[in-house]
From TrEMBL:
<keyword id="KW-0862">Zinc</keyword>
<protein>
    <recommendedName>
        <fullName>Aspartate carbamoyltransferase regulatory chain</fullName>
    </recommendedName>
</protein>
<dbReference type="Pfam" id="PF02748">
    <property type="entry name" value="PyrI_C"/>
</dbReference>
<comment type="function">
    <text>Involved in allosteric regulation of aspartate carbamoyltransferase.</text>
</comment>
<dbReference type="InterPro" id="IPR020545">
    <property type="entry name" value="Asp_carbamoyltransf_reg_N"/>
</dbReference>
<feature type="domain" description="Aspartate carbamoyltransferase regulatory subunit N-terminal">
    <location>
        <begin position="7"/>
        <end position="99"/>
    </location>
</feature>
<comment type="similarity">
    <text>Belongs to the PyrI family.</text>
</comment>
<comment type="subunit">
    <text>Contains catalytic and regulatory chains.</text>
</comment>
<dbReference type="InterPro" id="IPR036792">
    <property type="entry name" value="Asp_carbatrfase_reg_C_sf"/>
</dbReference>
<feature type="domain" description="Aspartate carbamoyltransferase regulatory subunit C-terminal">
    <location>
        <begin position="103"/>
        <end position="146"/>
    </location>
</feature>
<dbReference type="InterPro" id="IPR036793">
    <property type="entry name" value="Asp_carbatrfase_reg_N_sf"/>
</dbReference>
<keyword id="KW-0665">Pyrimidine biosynthesis</keyword>
<dbReference type="InterPro" id="IPR002801">
    <property type="entry name" value="Asp_carbamoylTrfase_reg"/>
</dbReference>
<dbReference type="GO" id="GO:0016740">
    <property type="term" value="F:transferase activity"/>
</dbReference>
<feature type="binding site">
    <location>
        <position position="110"/>
    </location>
    <ligand>
        <name>Zn(2+)</name>
    </ligand>
</feature>
<feature type="binding site">
    <location>
        <position position="139"/>
    </location>
    <ligand>
        <name>Zn(2+)</name>
    </ligand>
</feature>
<dbReference type="InterPro" id="IPR020542">
    <property type="entry name" value="Asp_carbamoyltrfase_reg_C"/>
</dbReference>
Amino acid sequence: MSEDQQLRVSKITEGTVIDHVTGGQALNVLAILGIDGSGGEEVSIGMNVPSERLGRKDVVKVEGRELSQDEVDVLSLIAPAATINIVRDYDVVEKHRVERPSEVVGVLQCPNRNCITTKDEPVDSRFAVLEEGVRCAYCDTIIRESIADHIHVD
Ligand code: CTP
Ligand code: ZN
């Protein structure tokens, strides 16, 4: 296939391309980045596009934005094969694979309503990253599925 035929989502000028996202996870990627369209961000998404490495993959391109390490850490939980490409002036100037952190702090909300992190006292949530999910460091509640549904919203 020629390059023209392969290109599904146009290139960006400046910003971040999150590539090799597990097929079907693009909307969860947007949730992790706090993007719901209301902030006026310029975003392009490819869903279930063919990939040699993954069979099918999602791609999320965000114009004019770079990601924080916290955001990348949570992304790794739902898209372990993702690559983060930083684009400046149309060129990919940095590319790295996401890595599973040993813990994520302040990003997820504990589903246990009696957990100290969900009380009025401002205690940052803290989850240990396990093979199959994440575990609250304060009450040991384990989240195994739909991790993106537990992203902390202010
Ligand atoms: N990309 C983009 N806008 C740019 C440059 C790149 O949207 N100005 C996208 C490409 O479409 C691709 C990703 O960023 O999805 C990575 O670009 P590049 O490193 O050029 O592609 P590959 O070499 O195919 O990447 P990889 O080896 O990681 O698969
Ligand atoms: Zn807890």
